[in-house]
């Protein structure tokens, strides 16, 4: 039997601090699976202390200014992967046009963590409970990925491949998250069920509604976040949503949900809360 | 007379703490040749140790010493000596320290630990306290009868019962015969963590001459010193224990914890000092926690609401060791019926071993738990009988002259009044109850109240002492034994001293750290006893110092001692302040113009002894406590029936603490304590796998309240019926601030939605699942309403 030790130290590793994206890509190319990327470190440092990961090198992204910019163009919001959550929240346009993202980020962990945690890290860790995932799903976010030899842009819905796994290969890094500016009149929102006022999600739900489409996204209720389009139900105004219609919508959503029973919540309560939040969030979107 | 008592004087340690200058045990790294200690713990809940192989670990450069249980197979404990320093023959919980080592650095220590091989032979574990109580085959401690027990305790040989406390009065069957209604219910509460901010740190130094020096985050340094003396068979005078500021304790640092292990490591490490610093995970798994409880209660009541009989069985889940938890069972045993006067009582309180982390003292010491049972039961009774909850309680509460804790000892005339507390809380809760209707039909409002009492649970000969030592300029040092872990008692003691000695507050020094060689003795810093016990000792020390001062001054001024008084650092005959000597002229001895001198340096000393009796083993009769503080708490809540979520709108408290020494500090205790209790009531629970492994050993999943969970409004009343033997009439408050909260919350939920909760914690999920059980159609109806409402 392997001894279970509660470590207080970190394992040995070399800390590399590149100052440009190109240096990052070169280091990644050199060390590949022997390296880990350090963004905010809010998950990684715990995993290191618990010896769940034993990288030879940590590539610190905090000094790479290219990865920490926020830009708003006529078409999209582009957030550098290593931008601290707290900075994203300061931008008025985030609240005005990307409300679901704003609500998810202002409720992510607690204020101290939000100074450190990054959007790229939240996605990159690929936790099923990643708070930012649900809004990014409904907002059609694209993830920009680079390696020394290549660059690609993929829809966020293709990014998560399982619990704590993603499509990044060992020499790739997320450089930015691009979110198209929603149509005028779009409403979006995020709500999560939690055990205290500052907690990770037992279940998270995001909703986007405009004249062209209505979609919902869920976190912490399946191995990866889920996107469910309910445009077919033709919800245009509050009167279009009643108990019967909702039951039909829920019939469509429910088979996709596959939560676990754990110390945080039972499967049943997760599903119940997903349903209640869905009712609430849809109602508010139509009001 | 009182320049400071009764005023919100700023904390003595405020600047040190907010500036980061205050020193905690973790900061002590300046001891020469300090080694890092680390221990390996048991991965199995119950197993015999077959072999321990440390050969590979010994080869690691920088490993200085490795110890196993066999190096010092002495059982330790305060009331029941049932705990190995390191497991000797078998392991009894997952997380129990088995092998420890001292190394030049933590990294080396961790590396070496991973190379140690321990072979175990599994034994059947037992986790459920009810099953453990019945079990004769699976015993956590087969050799319990051989352990040292304090005579106040009654372990039952051949069982897992570490203590059985009995409270008996009248004839229980007769009591039930006189009742019109009988109510039977079961209540429970899980084990919880103290969740103090500062994990445990202990430094041990076993010197070549056999003397022992310890620096530890210990609440009760004098108890640590005394028990270390027994553990290492050395006179107490050979031992010095330092306890710096503590980052919270809440009882979790009250007993003897990791100090013997640190000393043992130092002894083997050729007398180099060793520092053990627990990680949070180790603190969850290996350090003591709070008891869990299962209780069954049967109450007989007349139609008018008079309780005629109370029969209770408490089972306290103390985990693998009960050294301190036996006294939780005893204290909760003698107060088992709460603050009520009942003719017929049969109560049994059992402290039971299970293969889980071991329990110790916890703020409230069984009283938060027992009042959850009593005050929830009372709510269920009043609802059924249709009587006003406060009227029902007042019909049954203790009044002066009635038998306190159900036995023959009478409640004192100056003991304070629970009825006044109940009234004050109810007035603030009830009037608005029906006026506010929520917009959403799934939001329900409710109010709930609970009354309670608690006194310090301590041995009958528990003592405190203090000394006051004057300096040349007339300023003074006050020394006490009580530790500072956040309560603020030291500030209150300095206020008492300043008023007694006629000194400005700034001229009283009271250190925040404790040193058993330097400081005056106190038994322990527990049980809300310090202000009362140490406060009396400080007052007596000041009186003694004044005696010495007046002796000198009366000779110089040629006035009788009894005429003298001190004010603004001047000593003078009452009414004649112009005829004064300044304190600085007297406290180091007075010199006449001729050079002749009288008197000498002033050191005043004072003591205070508890006045209690040993309780009768068969009935629990006797005087169990120096005082009881009475109180009541109530909450107003909003409950979302669709999600089970609760919002605490208002938390109202009233305590009869005799005299408020420092209003701001008292209020701080009330807010801190009631939020801690809300956290326990709504989210805290140590969760185990079916193998007994703790599943939530971190604050990611051991949920404590966050700032957003704090109630919107606190209303606090302090009732001041003075206790004649308290310092300025004061009684203790620290633990009281928690006790009524869980039951008040449970009662408010019942009031809001008619759902009865019997088990803590009351999580949102718990409420949701109880609504489904008790009101099966409610949620689906509300879901429909939710979609209709436009």
How is the secondary structure organized here?
The complex is a heterodimer of chains A (287) and B (790).
Chain A (H helix, E strand, L loop, with lengths): L13 E3 L4 H11 L3 E4 L5 H6 L7 E4 L9 E3 L3 E5 L4 H5 L2 H6 L1 H8 L4 H6 L2 H6 L8 H6 L3 E5 L4 E5 L4 E3 L2 E2 L6 E8 L6 E7 L9 E7 L4 E6 L6 E4 L13 H11 L13 H20 L1
Parallel strand pairs in A: 1-3, 2-3
Antiparallel strand pairs in A: 4-5, 5-10, 6-7, 6-10, 8-9, 11-12, 12-13, 13-14
Chain B lengths: L13 H6 L15 E7 L5 E7 L1 H4 L4 E6 L6 E2 L6 E2 L5 E2 L5 E7 L2 H8 L3 E6 L6 H6 L26 E9 L2 H6 L3 E9 L11 E6 L5 E5 L4 H11 L7 E5 L15 H10 L5 E4 L2 H7 L2 E2 L1 E10 L5 E11 L7 H10 L9 E9 L6 E2 L6 H19 L3 H8 L21 H12 L13 E12 L8 E8 L5 E5 L8 H13 L6 E2 L4 E2 L14 H28 L6 E4 L2 E4 L7 E2 H4 L1 E4 L5 E5 L1 E7 L19 E12 L5 E11 L6 H20 L30 E7 L16 H4 L1 H13 L10 H11 L3 H11 L2
Description:
The complex is a heterodimer of chains A (287) and B (790). In chain A, the strands form 4 sheets. A 5-stranded antiparallel beta sheet of chain A has the order 4-5-10-6-7. A 4-stranded antiparallel beta sheet of chain A has the order 11-12-13-14. A 3-stranded parallel beta sheet of chain A has the order 1-3-2, covered by helices on one side. By secondary structure, chain A is α+β, with helices and mostly antiparallel strands. Chain A has 3 domains: 14-60, 2-Layer Sandwich (Uridine Diphospho-n-acetylenolpyruvylglucosamine Reductase, domain 2), CATH 3.30.43; 65-180, Uridine Diphospho-n-acetylenolpyruvylglucosamine Reductase, domain 3, CATH 3.30.465.10; 187-286, Enolase-like, domain 1 (2-Layer Sandwich), CATH 3.30.390. Chain A has helices spanning 21-31, 44-49, 85-89, 92-97, 99-106, 111-116, 119-124, 133-138, 243-253, 267-286, and strands spanning 14-16, 35-38, 57-60, 70-72, 76-80, 142-146, 151-155, 160-162, 165-166, 173-180, 187-193, 203-209, 214-219, 226-229. Chain B is of the alpha+beta class. Among the domains of chain B are: 389-395 and 408-456 and 623-780, Aldehyde Oxidoreductase, domain 4; 463-609, Aldehyde Oxidoreductase, domain 4, CATH 3.30.365.10. Chain B has 20 helices and 33 strands. The longest helix of chain B is centred in the last third of the chain and has 28 residues, at 530-557. The radius of gyration of chain B is 28 Å and the shape is globular. The N and C termini of chain B lie far apart (66 Å). The interface between A and B is large, with 33 and 43 residues.
């Amino acid at each position: 039997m392997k001894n279970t030790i509660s470590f207080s130290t970190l394992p040995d590793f070399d800390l590399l601090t590149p100052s440009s994206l190109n240096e990052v890509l070169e280091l990644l190319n050199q060390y590949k699976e022997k390296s880990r990327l350090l963004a905010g470190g809010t998950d990684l440092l715990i995993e290191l202390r618990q010896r769940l990961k034993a990288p030879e090198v940590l590539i610190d992204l905090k000094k790479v200014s290219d990865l920490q910019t926020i830009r708003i163009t006529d078409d999209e919001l582009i957030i550098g992967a290593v931008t601290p959550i707290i900075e994203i929240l300061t931008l008025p346009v985030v609240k005005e046009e990307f409300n679901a993202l704003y609500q998810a980020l202002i409720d992510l962990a607690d204020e101290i963590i939000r100074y450190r945690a990054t959007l790229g890290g939240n996605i990159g860790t690929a936790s099923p409970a990643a708070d930012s995932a649900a809004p990014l799903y409904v907002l059609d976010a694209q993830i920009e990925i680079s390696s020394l030899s290549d660059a690609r842009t993929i829809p966020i819905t293709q990014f998560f491949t399982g619990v704590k796994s993603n499509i990044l290969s060992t020499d790739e890094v997320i450089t930015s998250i691009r979110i198209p500016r929603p149509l005028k009149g779009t409403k979006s929102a995020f709500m999560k069920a939690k055990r205290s006022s500052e907690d990770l999600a037992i279940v998270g739900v995001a909703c986007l509604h405009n004249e062209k489409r209505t979609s919902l996204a869920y976190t912490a209720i399946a191995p990866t976040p889920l996107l469910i389009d309910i445009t077919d139900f033709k919800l245009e105004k509050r009167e279009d949503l009643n108990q019967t219609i909702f039951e039909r919508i829920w019939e469509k959503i429910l088979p996709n949900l596959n939560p676990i029973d754990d110390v945080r919540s039972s499967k049943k309560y997760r599903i119940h809360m997903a349903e209640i939040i869905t009712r609430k969030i849809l109602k508010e979107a139509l009001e | 007379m009182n320049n400071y008592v009764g005023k919100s004087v700023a904390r003595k340690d405020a600047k040190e703490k907010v500036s980061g200058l205050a020193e905690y045990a973790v900061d002590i790294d300046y001891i020469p040749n300090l080694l890092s200690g680390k221990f390996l713990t048991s991965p199995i809940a119950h197993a015999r140790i077959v072999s321990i192989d440390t050969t590979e670990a010994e080869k690691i450069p920088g490993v200085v010493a490795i110890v196993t249980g066999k190096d010092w197979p002495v059982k330790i404990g305060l009331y029941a000596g049932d705990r190995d320093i390191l497991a000797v023959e078998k392991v009894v919980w997952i997380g129990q320290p088995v092998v420890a080592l001292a190394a030049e650095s933590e990294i080396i220590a961790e590396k070496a630990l991973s190379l140690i091989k321990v072979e175990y032979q599994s034994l059947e574990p037992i986790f459920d306290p009810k099953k453990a109580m019945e079990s004769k085959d699976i015993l956590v401690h087969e050799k319990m009868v051989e352990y040292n027990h304090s005579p106040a305790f009654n372990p039952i040989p051949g069982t897992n019962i570490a203590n059985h406390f009995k409270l008996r009065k009248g004839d229980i069957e007769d009591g039930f015969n006189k009742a019109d209604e009988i109510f039977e219910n079961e209540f429970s509460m899980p084990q919880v963590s103290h969740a103090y901010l500062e994990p445990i740190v202990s430094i041990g130094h076993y010197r070549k001459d056999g003397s022992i020096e310890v620096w530890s985050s210990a609440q009760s340094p004098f108890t640590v010193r005394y028990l270390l003396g027994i553990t290492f068979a050395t006179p107490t005078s050979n031992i010095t224990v330092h306890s710096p500021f503590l980052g919270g304790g809440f009882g979790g640092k009250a007993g003897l914890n990791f100090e013997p292990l640190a000393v043992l490591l130092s002894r083997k490490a050729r007398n180099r000092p060793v520092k053990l610093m627990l990680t949070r995970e180790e603190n969850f798994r290996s350090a003591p926690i709070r008891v869990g409880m299962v209780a069954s209660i049967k109450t007989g009541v007349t139609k008018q609401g008079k309780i005629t009989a109370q029969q209770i069985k408490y089972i306290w889940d103390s985990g693998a060791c009960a050294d301190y938890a036996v006294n939780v069972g005893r204290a909760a045993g003698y107060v088992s019926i709460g603050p009520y006067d009942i003719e017929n009582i049969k109560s049994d309180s059992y402290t039971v071993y299970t293969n889980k982390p071991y329990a110790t003292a916890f703020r409230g010491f069984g009283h938060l738990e027992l009042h959850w049972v009593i005050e929830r039961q009372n709510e269920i009774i009043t609802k059924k009988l249709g009587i006003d909850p406060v009227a029902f309680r007042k019909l049954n509460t203790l009044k002066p002259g009635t038998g306190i804790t159900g036995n023959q000892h009478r409640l004192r005339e100056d003991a304070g009044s629970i009825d006044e507390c109940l009234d004050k809380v109810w007035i603030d809760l009830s009037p608005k109850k029906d006026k506010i209707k929520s917009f959403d039909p799934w939001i329900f409002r409710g109010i709930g109240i609970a009354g309670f009492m608690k006194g310090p649970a301590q041995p009958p000969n528990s003592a405190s002492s203090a000394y006051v030592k004057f300096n040349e300029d007339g300023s003074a040092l006050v020394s006490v034994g009580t530790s500072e872990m956040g309560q603020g008692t030291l500030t209150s003691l300095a206020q008492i001293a300043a008023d007694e000695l006629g000194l400005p507050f700034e001229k009283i020094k009271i250190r925040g750290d404790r040193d058993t060689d330097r400081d005056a003795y106190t038994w322990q810093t527990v049980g809300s006893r310090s202000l009362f016990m140490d406060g009396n000792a400080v007052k007596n020390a000041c009186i003694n110092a004044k005696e010495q001062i007046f002796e000198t001054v009366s000779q110089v001024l040629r006035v009788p001692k009894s005429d003298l008084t001190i004010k603004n650092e001047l000593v003078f005959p009452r009414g004649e302040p112009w005829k004064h000597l300044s304190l600085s002229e007297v406290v180091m001895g007075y010199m006449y113009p001729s050079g002749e001198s009288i008197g000498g340096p002033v050191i005043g000393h004072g003591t205070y002894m508890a006045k209690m009796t040993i309780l009768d083993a068969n009935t629990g009769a006797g005087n169990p406590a120096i005082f009881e503080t009475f109180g009541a708490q109530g909450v107003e809540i909003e409950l979302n029936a669709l999600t089970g979520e609760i919002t605490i709108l208002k938390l109202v408290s009233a305590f009869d603490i005799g005299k408020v020494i420092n209003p701001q500090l008292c209020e701080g205790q009330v807010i801190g304590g009631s939020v801690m209790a809300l956290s326990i009531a709504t989210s805290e629970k140590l969760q185990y796998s079916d193998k007994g492994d703790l599943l939530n050993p971190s604050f990611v999943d051991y949920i404590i309240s966050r700032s957003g969970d704090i109630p919107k409004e606190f209303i606090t009343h302090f009732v001041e019926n003075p206790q004649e033997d308290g310092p300025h009439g004061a009684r203790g408050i620290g633990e009281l601030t928690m006790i009524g909260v869980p039951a008040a919350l449970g009662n408010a939920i019942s009031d809001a939605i008619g759902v009865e909760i019997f088990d803590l914690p009351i999580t949102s999920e718990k409420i949701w699942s109880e609504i489904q059980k008790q009101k099966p159609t409610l949620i689906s109806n509300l879901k429909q309403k939710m979609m209709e409402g436009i």
